[in-house]
Amino acid sequence: MSIRTRLTLSYVGFFAIALLTLHVGLYLIVRSVLLNSVDNELRLGVEVLRRGFAESNQTAYGYFRDDQLRAILLRQPPVRDFEATSLYVQFFDADGDLVGRSPNIGDGDLAAALTLDEQRLALALDGTEQITTVEYGNVHIRELVAPLRYFNPVTRREEIVGVLQVARSMAEIRYALQLLFYALTVGGVVVLLAAARGGAWLTRAAFRPIDEIAQTAQSIVRAEDLSRRIPVPPAADELQRLTITVNDLLARLEELFNHQRRFIADVSHELRTPLTAMQGNLEVLARGAARDPQLLNESLDDMRREVARLIRMVNDLLLLARSDAGIQIRREPVELDTLLLETLRELRPLAGQVQLRIGEEDQVIVIGDRDRIKQALLNLGVNAIQHTPPGGAVTLSLARRDGYAALSVVDTGYGIAPQDLPHIFERFYRADRSRCHNGGGAGLGLSIVRSVVEVHGGQVLVSSEPGKGSIFTMLLPLAPQPEGAMLPTPNIPDGVPQTAETL
Question: Where are the domains of the chain?
Fold first, then answer.
């Protein structure tokens, strides 16, 4: 069963429950009002008879005789009350004998229905009024049985001299309630059918954008075209937010898919280069170079370099994959000044004619993975050396900046073009490779730098001016201060302009 059908059924079900509750309440209220009106009529009739008896100065036997009751019911003005209500009246004496009855009772089923049993007679003689509904065959009446009190001037006490029974037919009330029941039932069915129809229309209209989203998503899957987007509904509601979210998701998937495609192409290209070189050396050896010691050594040296290059590339890819997988790094104190000197010593054999030197050097301790921080700093140093012409200089510095350790690598190389600056941290991205005096690497070094700095909760900043050089700065949080101390927001170090990229 579809969600649309379930929503429609749920809507109709809740509406039916609410409508049934309303109809039952309305029926009970109307029934109560009608019964109260009948009861008030009966009480009014009893009051009229009591008042007439009290004013007549007659005995109960004389006042409530059949002919006397007929005269009472036909006399004005009291007769107006009885004409309008069609009341039935009977009077019983204190012994329970019927003294008189109104002439509209007759001798049929109505007289049998108005028969007063001993229990109700006894309660009335004890002074208790009783209102009940009596059903006898097809006769349905509402009756009030009340004591008739008489003030005895001799004993100066009020005495119960008999029982008055005043009744009214319930045929009109039952007919009115029956009409009300039928009207509520038929009306309820009609309203429920209209609600079902309206609910189905509303759910269909509400789910139309969702159907469009599903159809568009299916067409994207079938066509494998992530560039398509779902039309955004004009109404600013949940469906519009859902559509915008799905479009953002598609844009993100398209970006990731394109990155993956470029990544695979770049990896294939980078792997093919050393493998092709190794294959060429193997062919040289196969053609007889193995018998020439000098040529043999050259071929073996070339293959060692290419194998080392492959190993570095695989290690870099492994490090990036671990970073993407969120693998936890070691957390231990790292003395950055010592690490800076170690990095300088390892970079010297690679510097060649590039001058390598130490700038500012503070004693700074951070919490992190020493090997990864060193690898990131080495990558920055190697990158600077590769893009600095002979006779240039690369300076490594360490300073304390507002609660952060600033590891800076400054070179006097070719610099980075403004259009390349936003992309240099992307994997396999390389700017103008022809300006790298040794061919450059695979384009993974700066990606590793960004990954290492991010996993340590820091930032990497870069500024560059073509023809003058570049400044790369890694900001790493200092070791925690005593409990309660807060690390301030880092300021951009001296020498790094406000246009630097912040990760």
Answer: 3-177, 238-321, 329-477
- Structural contact between residues 170 and 133, judged by C-beta atoms closer than 8 angstroms: yes
Sequence-distant contacts of 5-10: CB under 8 A, at least 24 apart: 7/199, 7/203, 8/196, 8/199, 8/200, 8/203
Has residue 171 got a pLDDT over 50?
yes
**Structure confidence at residue 79 as a pLDDT band (50, 70, 90):** very low
Instruction: Report the share of the chain in percent with pLDDT over 90.
Output: 9
Q: Which fold has domain 3-177?
A: Beta-Lactamase (3.30.450)
Which CATH superfamily, name and number, covers 329-477?
Answer: Histidine kinase-like ATPase, C-terminal domain (3.30.565.10)
Residue whose tokens read 């990131």 = 376
Cis peptide before 77 (omega within 30 of 0): yes
In this chain, the answer to whether the domains covering 238-321 and 329-477 adopt an identical fold is: no
Which of 46-55, 125-134, 288-297, 488-497 reaches the highest mean pLDDT? 125-134
Q: What is the pLDDT of residue 324?
A: 62
Complete DSSP assignment for 90-109: EEEETTS-EEEE-TTS-SSH
Rounded distance, CA 212 to CA 294, Å?
71
- What is the rounded distance in angstroms from the CA atom of residue 430 to the CA atom of residue 414? 14
Please check whether the domain covering 238-321 is classified as CATH 3.30.420.40: no
User: How is the beta sheet containing 139-152 ordered, strand by strand?
Assistant: 98-101, 88-93, 157-169, 139-152, 130-136
498: left (phi over 0), alpha (psi -120 to 50) or beta: alpha
Instruction: Tell me the C-alpha distance between 312 and 325, whole Å.
Output: 20
Distance in angstroms (rounded) separating the CA atoms of residues 139 and 133: 10
Res 498 pLDDT > 70: no
Sign of the Cα torsion 483, 488, 489, 494 reads negative
Determine the pLDDT at residue 15.
82
Q: Would the pTM count as exceeding 0.85?
A: no
Give every CB contact of residue 141 below 8 A, 6+ residues apart in sequence: 88, 110, 113, 114, 133, 134, 167, 168, 169, 170
3-state class of 134 per DSSP? strand
Could you give the CA distance from residue 60 to residue 97 in angstroms, rounded to a whole number? 12
